[in-house]
Amino acid sequence: MEKFVNKSSCINDAKSPQKKIKLESDERIENEDEGEEAHHLFKQLEEEVVYSTGEEAKVQLFGKVHNIPRKQATYGDAGLTYTYSGVTRLACPWTQTLEYIRDAVTKTTGQTFNFVLVNRYKDGQDHMGEHRDDEKELDPLCPIASVSLGAPRDFIFRHRDARGKQSHRQIKPVKLELAHGSLLLMNSPTNTFWYHSLPVRKKISLPRINLTFRRILLGRKK
Ligand SMILES: O=C(O)CCC(=O)C(=O)O
């Protein structure tokens, strides 16, 4: 059932950053069945997922409202909401395919998830800026499980002490290629110390869907 998943894990802290981001390359052996299942799941998601439009397709950054440079949707358990970049999103009920992938990720990781953020990048122009997934409503003990389907894209981690004007340490960014059918696990405390982004890649013409499975604390249910 979880055949489509090729796993990589990211268990970074402040002290030994690069060493702890490891691609479990032995698990990335291309297998025809896995590729086919991942392709099937991509097609199913293209039919099932309904992306936000209007105000819900915007974010607020430094007081200004911007269109999101990709499409986004939120699914999960009834009544859950997730607020980021100034916008609160209500979870739509799980679709059959999202539930299937969630259960496969649970089987692989041993973790349970009650929410998924879906991002669709139509091509390499669509992107996601540098940020951390450090919202208070996220269960800090639960890793964020990121499943990628479609065009492979670069994913960059940058340490918080090596960014911008406050930069006071020399820590190289870490680049991973998120392949079709891959699973990246961002374990605690990755999102405390590391920012991540999915930069523009102009040569990429094919779409990609990314699912980040999360656990939202129920005490914070609105
Ligand atoms: O599409 C991706 O891999 C990036 C997703 C991401 O950064 C997020 O959901 O926070």
From TrEMBL:
Compartments (UniProt record): Nucleus, Nucleolus; Nucleus, Nucleoplasm
Family: Belongs to the alkB family.
GO biological process annotation, one example: DNA alkylation repair
Protein name from the UniProt record: DNA oxidative demethylase ALKBH2
Polar residues bias spans: 1-11
One of the record's GO cellular component terms: nucleolus
SUPFAM superfamilies reported in the protein's UniProt record: Clavaminate synthase-like (SSF51197)
E.C. number: 1.14.11.33
Catalytic activity: an N(1)-methyl-2'-deoxyadenosine in double-stranded DNA + 2-oxoglutarate + O2 = a 2'-deoxyadenosine in double-stranded DNA + formaldehyde + succinate + CO2 + H(+); a 3,N(4)-etheno-2'-deoxycytidine in single-stranded DNA + 2-oxoglutarate + O2 + H2O = a 2'-deoxycytidine in single-stranded DNA + glyoxal + succinate + CO2; an N(3)-methyl-2'-deoxycytidine in single-stranded DNA + 2-oxoglutarate + O2 = a 2'-deoxycytidine in single-stranded DNA + formaldehyde + succinate + CO2 + H(+); a 3,N(4)-etheno-2'-deoxycytidine in double-stranded DNA + 2-oxoglutarate + O2 + H2O = a 2'-deoxycytidine in double-stranded DNA + glyoxal + succinate + CO2
